[in-house]
Amino acid sequence: MKDNPVIAHVTRGGTVESQHHGACAISSASGRIISSVGNIDAPVFPRSAIKAFQCLPLIESGAAERFGLNDEEIALCCSSHNGEPEHLRVAASILAKAGNAESQYECGAHWPHERKDVIDLARAGAEPRAIHNNCSGKHAGMLALARQLEADSQGYVAQTHPVQQAVAATISRYCDVNLADAPTGIDGCSVPTWAFPLRNMALGFARLTDPANAAAQWIIRAARNHPFMIAGSNRYDTTIMQKLPRLFIKVGAEGVYCGCIPHAGLGFALKVDDGATRAAEAAVSQALLSLDVWTAEERAILADHTHAELRNWRGFHVGSVEAAF
CA-to-CA distance for 35 and 216, rounded, in angstroms? Predict the structure, then answer.
């Protein structure tokens, strides 16, 4: 990672104050690298950026159809949401449709992302629950998959559980990786996370663009129809997909972004070495802008997101976060 180039920097008063190194790969569905920056062959934990692949077994197994899940619910299964009331409503619906309960969650609890929702909970004298967890949609989907597989829901987050084995098989198949040999860790929500190259992540996402792949097309359609479910208020993923509906994109912890451009048949994966999300947002916008697959209006939207203004506590403009490649 130390050899990766600077892909974003922070300026203050016109002078570079901080630098963020990283790497990015953009691939076709055949595996041809369209463009790259940095070392795209080093193993990287994608974290939540690959929730689409964690959702695919839910659809491919027939569970999503069996339990009557709709686009809104499929989008939440792929999300890292804010824990806003609408997110809680949809997560509860997924649980109910599959005959599961919130008490079965094994993702842990944390406070919502938005300050207003934290204040509302505190004023009510309530504590955050597992359904507030940003991964509660994914976990509701995993519980539904466990029921479809007739597997014990207890311990569904374990690497040896049939649910996680199905996820591993899906990632391996789409991304051309052998996860049995990959570095493995535990994600923030307690499910396994495997490290593998950005090259392979980009390939996997490019393969999601296949118009004949009904399961993948359902995920992309769901995210396009309900971008709020993918993240929520004041979040890059939701904002950029609302403005640019031809894009599918998903954040992962520690400065990762992955996604695809369905109309162009391309997938992309980006990692900021120091894990800074602020740098990842600017850098992935620049990477996407570099592609000649957008209209003039779409290019203007992407260009606007290659930098973010920084203001101090009095509202004065003091600098910016900018893509630097």
Answer: 24
Looking at the domain assignment, is residue 1 inside a domain? no
pLDDT digits (tens, 9 = 90+) for 153-173: 999 999 999 999 999 999 999
Name the nearest CA neighbour of 68 among 31, 26, 96: 96
Residue 170 lies in a domain: yes
Quick one: tokens of 112? 């919502």
- What residues contact residue 15 under an 8 Å CB cut-off, 6+ apart? none
The residue with tokens 């003039």 is 296
> What totals of helices (H) and strands (E) does the chain contain, helices first?
13, 12
Structure tokens at 59: 């659809």
Percentage of residues of the chain with pLDDT beyond 70: 99
Whole-angstrom Cα distance, residue 196 to residue 182? 6
Backbone angles phi, psi at 260, to 5 degrees: -150, 160
CATH number of the domain to which 287 belongs? 3.40.710
Q: Total domain count for the chain?
A: 1
Provide the pLDDT confidence category of residue 2 given band limits of 50, 70 and 90: low
The pLDDT, as a whole number, for residue 325 is 85
- For residues 178 and 22, is the Cβ–Cβ distance under 8 A? no
